[in-house]
């Protein structure tokens, strides 16, 4: 781990990776700078440009993911439009709605982060 990537990022990436294939996942802001360093197979619908205030970049999904209370319906809709296989967020976030109502199922929980998988996508990506 020469890049000093947090163990949580490593574990999440390894959990969602599919050998030889790319997956797309919406990560919380605190992981953006590390995911691309660790895995060439895990892509994000937004990148670290979201965390640099002076660049003044807006992204709807990133904004939804940063909310105090996650609007599940909107996140599921936009994530699916952006072809995200997974949605990842802290288990301390409050939810408005249930992901299973929008065909996202709990895939795993790692170090306090919930990983929801889009069940409408082909298994094995």
Account of the 3D structure:
The protein has 125 residues and is of the alpha/beta class. 27% of the residues lie in helices and 24% in strands. The strands form two sheets. The protein has a five-stranded mixed beta sheet with strand order 2-1-4-7-6. A two-stranded parallel sheet has the order 3-5. The longest helix has 10 residues, at 7-16.
Précis, in short:
This protein is of the alpha/beta class. The chain contains 4 helices and 7 strands, in the order αβαβαβαββββ.
What number is the mean pLDDT? Answer: 89
Number of strands: 7
Total number of helical segments? Answer: 4
Terminal Cα span:
26 Å
Large-scale geometry: globular
Q: How many whole angstroms does the radius of gyration measure?
A: 14 Å
| Share in β-strands | 15-25%
Biggest sheet: strand arrangement: 2-1-4-7-6
How is the quaternary structure best described? single chain
Major sheet, described briefly?
5 strands, mixed
Structural class: alpha/beta
Q: Can you give the helix content as a percent range? A: 25-40%
Order of helices and strands: HEHEHEHEEEE
Low-confidence stretches: none
Keywords:
single chain, 125 residues, alpha/beta, 5-stranded mixed sheet, two-stranded parallel ribbon, 27% helix, 24% strand, globular
């Amino acid at each position: 781990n020469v890049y000093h990537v947090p163990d949580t990022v490593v574990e999440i990436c390894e959990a969602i990776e599919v050998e030889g294939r790319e997956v797309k996942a919406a990560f919380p802001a605190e992981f953006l700078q590390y995911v691309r360093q660790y895995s060439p197979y895990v892509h994000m619908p937004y990148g670290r440009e979201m965390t640099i205030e002076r660049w003044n970049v807006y992204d709807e999904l990133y904004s939804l993911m940063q909310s105090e209370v996650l609007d599940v319906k909107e996140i599921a809709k936009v994530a699916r439009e952006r072809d995200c296989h997974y949605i990842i967020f802290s288990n301390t976030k409050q939810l408005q709605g249930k992901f299973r109502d929008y065909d996202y199922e709990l895939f795993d929980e790692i170090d306090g982060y919930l990983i929801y998988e889009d069940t409408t996508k082909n298994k094995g990506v």
